Amino acid sequence: MWQDAGKMINEPMRWNQADWAAFVGVSAGTIILFQFDSEIESMLLDSRRRSVMDLTSYGIEPFGNGLYSLPLLAGLGAFGKLKGEEQHVQVAFAGLEAFVFSAGGATCTKWIFQRHRPSDNIPLDPFVFEGPLGDLRDDGSFVSRHAASAFAVATVLASCYGKQRKWVPWLAYGLAGAVTASRVYNGRHWSSDAFAGAALGVVTGKFVYRMRKSRGHLKTF
Question: What is the pTM of this model?
Answer without folding.
Answer: 0.93
